[in-house]
Amino acid sequence: MTIKKTLTVAGSDSSGGAGLQADLKTFEEYGTFGFSAITTIVTMDPDNNWAHGVTPIDAGLVREQLKTILSGGPVDAMKTGMLGSVDIIRATREAIDQYQLKNVVIDPVMVCKGEDELIQPENAEAIRDLLLPVATVTTPNLFEAGQLSGFGKLETVEDMKRAAEKINQLGVKYVVIKGGKALESNKAIDLLYDGKDFTIYEVEKVDTDYNHGAGCTFAAAITAGLAKGMNVPEAVQKAKDFVTAAIQNGFALNKFIGPVWHGAYNQAEKRIK
User: Domain Pyridoxamine kinase/Phosphomethylpyrimidine kinase, which positions (predicted)?
Assistant: First the structure.
C-alpha cells in the first residue's frame, strides 16, 4: 500500500477549526499522510472582543521545516494558507522550485474570518507575483479574488467569472473562487475556471454560523483529491461535497466561533464508541 503525502504551509489556528489544523484533519479524512510547516500563530483574545493576534514565524525556521519535510522526497500535493510575511512567501516559492513540487494549491489567505482588513497588504502582492505563476489551483474567496484581480468587491457570479479570467492571466492553471454563502442567493456557489470554460458548483445554502475553517477545509480537500489522482474538476466536486457535510455538522466552540466538523463526510464520530 502506498500512502499519498500531502503538505500544508500555513498558520496555526489555536482554536483548532481552521489553518493547518483544518488541513491536517482533512488530509487524514482523505486517507493521505499530512505534513505541516507552521508559518504563523493565530490567537483570539476573549478579553478583547475576540480580537485576532497574528504572529509570523521566522522565515528561516519555515525553511528548516520545509527542508525536514521534503528531505524524504517530494509530496504528492501541497497547499498554502496564511503565510505571514513576504520572506515566508519567498521561502515557499524556493521550496516549490527546488523540489519541483507538483499539484500546488495556493489558498491566498488575506484576512481572518470575522475580520475585513488585509492582514499584510504587501503579502497579497507577493502571493500574486511569486506563487500564482507556479500554482496548479488557487482558491480565493470573494474578498481575496477581488484583491488579486484588482476588481474590488465581487457581488455576482458574473463578477466572479470576470475576476477568474483576470487571475488566470497571472499564470495559475485553474482558478476556484469560493463564493460560499457570501453571494445574495439561496445557493452556496463556487466557480471553477480552467482558462477556457467555467464550471459552477452549487448546493443549497446551509443556514448556520458554524462555518469556521470552511475555506481552509475546501482548499485542503482539493489538495488531497489531487494527491489521490483526481483531476481538478473531480477534486473540486469531491471537496464541495466534503465541506458541505462539514458545514452541515458544524458546532459551537465558544461565544465567538463554531467550527465545521471535518469528520462529517466519513462519519468519523460513529467509528469509535
Answer: 13-261
